[in-house]
Amino acid sequence: MLQPFRVLTIYAVATLFASCAINAPVFPAGEVCETPAFSVVDGFSGARRGTCTVLSDSHVRLDILPESSGKINDSPWYAFKLSSNSPMTAKISLRYRGGHHRYWPKVSKDGQHWTRLDPQHVVSSANGRRAEFEIDLSADPVWMAGQELITPVTYDAWNRKTAKVANMPIMVLGNSTAGLPIYVFDSNAESREVLFLVGRQHPPEVSGAFAFFAFAETILGDSDLAQQFRARFRVIAIPLLNPDGVVGGNWRHNLGGVDLNRDWGPFTQPETQLVAELLEDLDARDSKIRMFIDFHSTKENVFYALPDVTHPPDFIATWLEAARPRTAGYPFALTQGPASNMTIAKNYIYERYGIPAVTFEVGDETDRNVTRTAAKVFAEELMQLMLDQEY
Ligand SMILES: [Zn+2]
């Protein structure tokens, strides 16, 4: 038997839906989705919620769609904010359109500190097309997202902090399609030997961003090794190449609907054109990129590289094997094969320069502290190995 309160609520909702078309229980993306008990908001940087259908006071269904129609990488991003006036348990069903459940839900009370949602509150269908989460709400809002929200605001804070430690300016390489600044760290610009790092071409690939942060902090840090390294090598590091995609909560593309990591060579987008100009400038100075690393995320920890017939030979395998005894908590593979698509960053750099180029892929759910610790080791071993080379 229904409790009186429950009956009243259902009656009130039914009356509302019947009498007022604009309060229909389906809310398009970008509109606050309200049930009598809680709301689901997507109006913030990095959000993606899709159409919200109110199934009951405490239950909504969200249709999670990519930013572009047609085939797109299976990385269905979602991020939204939940609010309630009184304590309750909200049920959120995700219906994936064009993808499969991939990211374990993370929750946060301030949008900055995140925890994984308790497994007993997460259910996904066998075919991966649906997922259901339960979350306790009280007076304070809760953010829920596929990964931690690491947006341009996060990068701005990290950039400032890192620039201060490194005692170097953070510069603007240029602007994204939407006009957002794309920042670059550039140390010791007089040196002709270059280490080139790129991050976040793909918006949902947040675990790779954690690796980028720790890796770059180590290279740009104040250890003796880092200072010695930067005295010899120029470090060019672009933390966030696709700010528009991150702000838009995209699965894959930039604002122009292009996968930036399939646009090295064609360089059709403002973001990749900035890279093309940078490479032209390096060539004009007769600079030599010694190593190129592009940070991403996938299902597990893996480094993708070309066959090590680069200058110097076997460089990537040597580097990673040097790090392996020090990264026991971070199991990883090295997959080396012929370049399948020349417009992927690492393939393009390898083709153009014949140098070691690698995609540093971190598992979606790899523990963040383990990732940071390992990335620091990879950075230290790389610096040592590059310093050992006479080239
Ligand atoms: Zn990627």
Task: Throw out a few tags for this protein.
alpha+beta, disordered N terminus, elongated, 9 helices, binds zinc ion, Aminopeptidase, 6-stranded mixed beta sheet, 391 residues
Q: Would you kindly provide a written description of the structure presented here, covering whatever features stand out?
A:
The chain has 391 residues and is of the alpha+beta class. It has two domains: 142 residues, Immunoglobulin-like (Sandwich); 237 residues, Zn peptidases (Aminopeptidase), CATH 3.40.630. 29% of the residues lie in helices and 27% in strands. The protein has nine helices and 20 strands. The strands form three sheets. The protein has an eight-stranded mixed sheet with strand order 13-14-16-15-17-20-18-19, with helices on both faces. Strand 13 and strand 14 form a beta hairpin. Helix 4 packs across helix 9. The longest helix is centred in the last third of the chain and has 21 residues. The chain is elongated and about 70 Å long. The N terminus is likely disordered. It binds zinc ion (ZN). Zinc ion binds next to loops.
